[in-house]
Amino acid sequence: MVFTMVYTGVRGAVGKLPSVLQTFQTRVLHVPSCSTGLRSKSSGASSPQERQRQLMGRGLPKQKPIAGVQQVVVVASGKGGVGKSTTAVNLALGLIANDPSKSVGLLDADIHGPSVPKLMNLKGNPELTETNRMIPLTNYGVPCMSMGFLVDEEAPIVWRGLMVMSALEKLLRQVEWGSLDYLVVDMPPGTGDVQLSISQNVPVTGAVIVSTPQDIALLDARRGAEMFRKVHVPVLGLVQNMSVFQCPNCQHQTHIFGSDGARKLADDMGVHFLGDIPLHLNIREMSDRGQPVVVSAPNSPEAEAYKKLAAAVLLRIQEVTV
Ligand SMILES: Nc1ncnc2c1ncn2[C@@H]1O[C@H](COP(=O)(O)OP(=O)(O)OP(=O)(O)O)[C@@H](O)[C@H]1O
Ligand SMILES: [Mg+2]
Ligand SMILES: [Zn+2]
Known about the structure:
Low-confidence stretches: 1-45
Radius of gyration: 20 Å
Bound molecules: adenosine-5'-triphosphate, magnesium ion, zinc ion
Mean pLDDT: 81
C-alpha cells in the first residue's frame, strides 16, 4: 500500500507533540511504500515507539467501551453540510442545559474537516497525562477533542487509509475524558470507513440522523439510518434541520417545505422524529463566532428547539438502554 500524505504546519515543538503526531511524523520520515514495512528504520524493534506501533497494528479489541464514558451518541447524516456539527454542539450543550448535573463531552470524528474547534471557540494543543493520554480542551463546560487541536487550522490534511484510522483510534482511545454521562460524537459526512469503524469499535448507544428537506428528496438520510441499522447501532431518530424559516425580526415561522415532510420521512423509515431545528440567522452567526445559541441566547426559540431535541434524544436513550 502506498501512503499519500501531505502534512504540514504542526504547531509547537516536536518534543511537545502528542504521540499521535509523533507517530505520523515517524511514518512520514521513514514510511516505505509497502504496508508490511511500517517499522521505522532508525528505531530498533524493541524501542518503545516500535512496540507501540506494533500494538497499534494489531487493531483494537471489538466494542471496547471508552474509559469513563457511559453513553456514546453519534450525530450523523448521509450527506455533507446539513448541520451535523451545529446540531452535535448544541445537542451537547442542550443536554447540560436541561440537566446541569450531567457531564457531557464532545468528540469531533471529522478528521479531514474538523469543526468543533471553531464552533466551541477552542484552540491549542491538548496536554498529556503521565500515561500519554490527551486531556480534552474545555469550553462552556464541555470537554472537547478534535483533530483540529493537533494540526494547524490551515494545514491541508490529506490522509488516507491507515493514517485516518490510526488518528481515529487515538481520538477514541487515548483521550482522558474523566467521567462522562454522555459523549456526543460529531461524525464526518457520509457512510464510510470512519462511521463503520466507530460503530464496530465502540458500543454506540444510538445515532441521531440529521436531515434537511432536500435530503428527504434524495433519501440520503435513509441511507445513513440504514447503515447504522446494519451495524446494529440503534437509530435514536431523525432531526430535521433548516426546514422552518424563522424571521429574525418577528420570529414568524414559514414552513418552506411544508410542516410534515420530516415526520412523514421518519414514519416511512420507521424511525422516531426527534424535532425540527429552524433555519435561523442567529444559529449560523453565533456558530461562526464560536458561541453556540444554546449558551449565547439560551432563551431564544432556536435554543429552545435544541433543548427540546436534547430532551427527545434523552428519552430515546432511556428507551434503547432499558
Ligand atoms: N438551523 C440552522 N440555521 C442556520 N444555519 C445553520 C443551521 N444549521 C446549520 N447551519 C449552518 O450551515 C452550515 C453547515 O453546518 P454544519 O457545519 O453544522 O454542517 P455539517 O453537516 O456538519 O457539515 P459537514 O458535512 O461539512 O461536516 C454552517 O454554516 C452552519 O452555521
Ligand atoms: Mg461537520
Ligand atoms: Zn418577520
